[in-house]
Design brief:
The protein contains five helices and six strands, in the order βββααβββααα. The chain is an alpha+beta fold. It has a domain at 22-113 and 142-172. Strands 1, 2, 3, 4, 5 and 6 form a six-stranded mixed β-sheet that branches. The longest helix is centred in the middle third of the chain and has 9 residues, at 84-92.
Length: 200
Amino acid sequence: MSKAPYNKKDYPLCPAGTTMARVVRIIDLGTQKTSWQGVEKETPQINISFELPTELYEFKEGESKKPFVISNTYSHMMGKKAKLRPITEAILGVALKDEEAYAFDHDELIGLPCQLTVVHTEKDGNTYANIGAVSPILKGVVVPPQVNESKILSFDKWNQELFDTLPNFLKEKIASSPEFKKLKGIPVQSEISTDDIPFN
């Protein structure tokens, strides 16, 4: 039997380098199973997306160019060893005291500018664009207006319509969390760990 031709179109790779950025999406992934130095834990996670206003691409033929968007998942912890804390401080442009860090609502980062370093890494013959560093926006630099719509998904303000538009891998992670199961009335067997580990 003959097979229909399949034309694979490679998704454009976000350019490497340091550029201006803006937070446009924050997704609460709930508690996820992680491993740190061989020890399995349950860690709350958050996914943050950045728009790169000066890195433009024609994603759909005939449409105007739009900014690349790149994201990363972090342990949703704000201890001194947590990776999310210096990133949060970089976006805010200020150092947080411990009590401020633990009380900080990351939804407040939406729309804020920063400087982002994108790096390309090779794995299994493929090239991926990853966030290498997040730093404060340089003094005097004016970041272009936001293009993509701001999006926030949290369990206390659930938005099913937004959830349905997320990539499958994010929806699967969220659906595996005890917070999602509780929201949907599904029995939860695991407990939430509040261990603060320096993981993602």
